[in-house]
DNA sequence: GTGAAAGCGCTAACAC
DNA sequence: GTGTTAGCGCTTTCAC
């Protein structure tokens, strides 16, 4: 079966390839009758332009790369939703890459992007990413990068993030307001700006409320370690925390399970609040108080910023940064019976 | 900044473009010393091949399209995980498209694929998809399509699905074994083979156990309707069901909420079992009995089948179909106090 | 309003 | 082992 190309259309209509090309682009140079003929034949033969030929010429792929740690995480899934919505609207295609928190993979992926496969990149770095050379190198090749959620401090570009410090502060304050005097915080990595910001907010809330900050109440739960065991140990401490802040949704399950295992009641013995976009939060046992990030909006904002930059002659991204606020939703896991 | 192409390397080393191309591909035709020189310079100048130029020549994009209804669904998210894992390994790239259960979008997406953007497609159709002409048309253009989970009966190609009939049967039997005499089943669409198969399994289990099938216990919850209201109404029926099978995870939340609203206890008044891959199932209130689909494996299997076909001269997919079994995990939502 | 020519960066066929 | 030639399908001058 013959491949329908512009040439084929040209031959059939006794026109040149150029004319066909222009007609298909609805160029003002081409007469209305000619355009009609071209459109009709194209439809009839089911012509679809070869995207690679076009990309090779124009140096535009109409494709963006999305690099994220996981997709089995409601935050990132919703963010992709937002990204994809904008991409569809703008005629862009979305290449998804999962790093699984592996820095080497992230590096390898970004390196590939230099080959022109994507016009721009939306990135949420791994928890292992300390060095951002690979990102800068990509940007040096004129491939714009927009961070969302997890950004690198030392890279100057658009960043779509939430008010992490404030959210950490609010979560902590919420626990304190509901009677906690020694809340703990669970983090995923000390490399991540989100972790640090949330931790700083936590510290600040303690300070304002004249509570002592204790290093032992900060628990690092990285990919490689057994969070369940670590959390259990934390809760078996002689002076166990009376509140827990999960800085990442994934930690909610091990916290709930550890409490169950130790016969600790949530919220009577331990109050729990998580950074979570899990829609099941309402039907958990007990229902989960949460800092909900505007994941969909963040995805949309990040994609919008990128496409906006892409449409310009000179790519300029620094002024596209945004901080979008999270919201605190109170449910039973932080309920205060003594109030 | 000059773009580093094969030509540039060729000029610098006083070799032809062909030689560079072959050397970079580690061809046996090229001498070891030459290869070394080429590799070294390529590394030095940070050469990255232009993928579009290559694709234009070879007619291979090393890219697959994944078309799914949603990504904010643990099943599909895990499936993507599996797909991406295989793709990475094989050097393929993954373009993700979300239909949001919209048939017109699905059609438009598949049409675009004819432009050579992808070498093959992994597809889980929308709940609205009755007509599969668009899929057949794509396959006519020699773009192989592999279905996973949601397949079209009238398209002959590889299908990676679960044992839906059996799972529906087992879920129903599980409810009956735990004392239900009038279980209801919640479906998303009558177009979907998965819905029909699961429904047939349900019917069969009723029959085997001499229970009467009642049309009013089959509830269609499509995208556009308010499932919560419909479920509530079902549960307010004079002879309300004493068990509910959610044929899709998304329905679990409205079921739990409706029960709470009506002060019906799960599992005392109503037992619930869902087709679900939600990791939070263990910490729900009550914990959720579930038919768990091997989502990751299905994604892997679908991608593997596609890549296998792609690597062959003649694309042959029908014998790559697989049925992978779901498993039933019993938890508290179907607990039988009278046993 | 239309077309001829050139070329994007790469690779395959074929010569040497 | 290496080079020459041609061309993938499209767009972009520039000429007519």
Descriptive report:
The structure is a homodimer of 339-residue chains. With 339 residues, chain A is an alpha/beta fold. Chain A is 41% helix and 15% strand. Chain A is built from twelve helices and twelve strands. A six-stranded parallel beta sheet of chain A has the order 2-1-3-4-5-11, with helices on both faces. In chain A, strands 7-6-8-9-10-12 form a six-stranded mixed beta sheet, with helices on both faces. In chain A, helix 5 packs parallel to helix 12 (295-310) and helix 8 packs parallel to helix 9 (193-208). The model of chain A has no long low-confidence stretch (mean pLDDT 93). Chains A and B meet through helix 4, helix 5, strand 2, helix 6 and helix 11 of A and helix 4, helix 5, strand 2, helix 6 and helix 11 of B. Chain A binds a DNA duplex (16 and 16 nucleotides) through helix 2 and helix 4.
How many helices of chain A does DSSP assign? 12
- In the predicted model, the low-confidence regions of chain A spanning at least 5 consecutive residues are none
Helix content of chain A: 40-55%
Q: In what range is the share of β-strand residues of chain A?
A: 15-25%
Structural shape of chain A: elongated
Report the biggest beta sheet of chain A as strand number plus sense, adding barrel if it closes: 6 strands, parallel
In total, the number of strands of chain A is 12
Which two chains touch over the largest interface? A-B, 54 and 54 residues
Oligomer: homodimer
**Straight-line N-to-C gap of chain A:** 76 Å
Give the integer mean of the pLDDT values of chain A: 93
Q: What is the radius of gyration of chain A?
A: 26 Å
Briefly note the structural class of the backbone of chain A.
alpha/beta
- What are the secondary-structure elements of chain A, in order, as H or E? HHHHEHEHEHEEHEHEHEHEEHEE
